Amino acid sequence: MPVGILALGYKALAPLCQPFLIKARSFLMRPDILFSLSSPVTTLSGVGPRIAKQIAKAAGEHVVDLCWHRPSSLIDRRFSPKIAEAPDGAVATITLSVDAHLPPHNRRLPYRVRCSDETGILDLVFFHAHPDYLMKVLPEGETRIISGRVEYFRDEVQMTHPDHIATIEERDSLETVEALYPLSAGLTQKTMGKAVKAALDMTPDLPEWIDPAFFKQQKWSPWRQSLLELHKPQSEADLGPRALPRLRLAYDEILASQLALALIRAQYRRLSGRAVTGDGHLRQAALSALPFQLTASQEQALSEITGDMNSKGRMLRLLQGDVGNGKTVVAFLAMLTAAEAGTQAVIMAPTEILARQHMATIAPLAEAAGVKAVLLTGREKGKNREKILEGLATGDITLAVGTHALFQEDVAFADLSLAVIDEQHRFGVHQRILLAEKGTGTDVLVMTATPIPRTLTQAAFGDMDVSRLTEKPPGRGPVDTRVVPVSRINDVVNAISRCLARGERVYWVCPLIDESEALDLAAATERFDALSHLLGERVGLVHGAMKGKEKDAVMARFASGGITVLVATTVIEVGVDVPEATMMVVEHAERFGLAQLHQLRGRIGRGKGESHCLLLYSPPLQSTARARLEILRASDDGFHIAEEDLRLRGAGEVLGTRQSGLPEFRLADLAEHSDLLATARDDARLILNRDPGLESQRGEALRVLLYLFERDSVVKYARSG
Is the pTM for the entire model greater than 0.90? Predict the structure, then answer.
């Protein structure tokens, strides 16, 4: 049951598609043509174990990783002036006569080699020089081509440690435009450049997998030529996301991603399901008990979900909703549809405290509908647990809310038709699979409170059906958001004291658990100590290094009022509802992503009182950081904020691949290449409609593409059992 399209990567999906994958082995075997690209970088000339480790940190461990390691800038050496025409600070390539070597009388002084042309004199300057080497490469009386940055020192022209020294005969081999690559510690541009060149020399000509008409329309070059051009930029424009070689290779990468998702989705749709249809009487009873009416987007989402359940295919739908937009109510009404059909439904939360929160929301509605709902977590023991398990096994219990305890081996269901999984990124794939496998043809609804831009949703979730909750339910007022310099921290503490005097509660969020020498950030532990000194035992601490039970205990104390100030790391992004919490302080807010800040802000504003979010920053703010904080201050629309975050920071920084499950792209930038994503998505669907087995000439080329971009991992996973 493919729960894991949601962000778990292709390896995670493999166990869900075993029948398809076994069949697929016949055509998805690694093509011989790609063996050289999959070789370790140590197979390249001049790359030993030490350099290989440095390259691995910067680019990766295999030859293909160097192919994907794009230049980040360039040096243009085409400017070839005479000495008198060379401006200060310019990179120049100058033909010079070597006149004399001028070794220093003091070791602390540099070694100089005096050179000239018909217009003037230029000194080559070397610190920590090796005279024998310099005599060899710069013999007196010879002519040399020198490239480097021109400097004026005391009205004299010089060049410190020139980048290139070449003979007249070597002129043609001198790179006039040199690509510069991102490096790791200890790695030089010269070493990386040689390694990339060696990797490119090993690249084969690959069969064309792009639709011929589209290929011609885009005026792209073949794959290998595009790759070579990517690494031979001739201007700054060639480094940009819209350069033709980059566009072509980005499309290749996106197409591989979309085709892999489409293959899995196609197989999923072929799996047997069942129609689960309710008559609406339980839902109507629950709706009558609600203190508010559903928003239009809630009604729309519910209609889409029940439509999926009513069909014979299996539902795999993502329910996206901003914090507090009523996802739990929509999910529960879907669960009641299962109950109306005489089947069972469960909702699984990542923590016990969240499970209990869901139960608190569901319990009165279930009672109003006359349906039995139970809570199953690790806390249920002995006879109570046995009673719950018996009720689930016999069907006496229709609805269950719980944690990972729901998928334990001894938990059996009479007829599970719907599994709802909350905050999907907090679960491992095997946990989700185990839950879904406890039913036959089980529909899967996954919820997330993280607003994700449409482009990234398409990239991560492929053809998964998506429903969005875009409206806030009645009763939730806006949160007053202010951007405050950290120098006013005493004013912030005074504001907290006033909140506590009114019986309210406060979150204080820090980015790190402990002090880091590398980052000038306030640690949660230190902030906890400081606030405890000022406010006493009312302050609590929660962070990611704590055990789950410890975190739940602290959060429970905060919810009950045992503590009134909670110092935390971002673990509270997904947390319990505390209506009394009216203030959120985020320290070093400029270091957070917009989507993350918005989700943190969503932890307050759930009661009737006024709520305030204070974003503390350390000046000076860079323009991008200032723009991001202003967007958050001006808007409370999570989806708008996510789109703006994507525009300002790019896909790689918006949510983080680890948290969100976004695929890691090396060549594509989804913020810049959204048009390519839409085309690739349509192309993948068309490919599978015409050639579901990838058996045509183009299909064979597409198999190469899947392996080239490592979208074959599901096959490898299947082979390993």
Answer: no
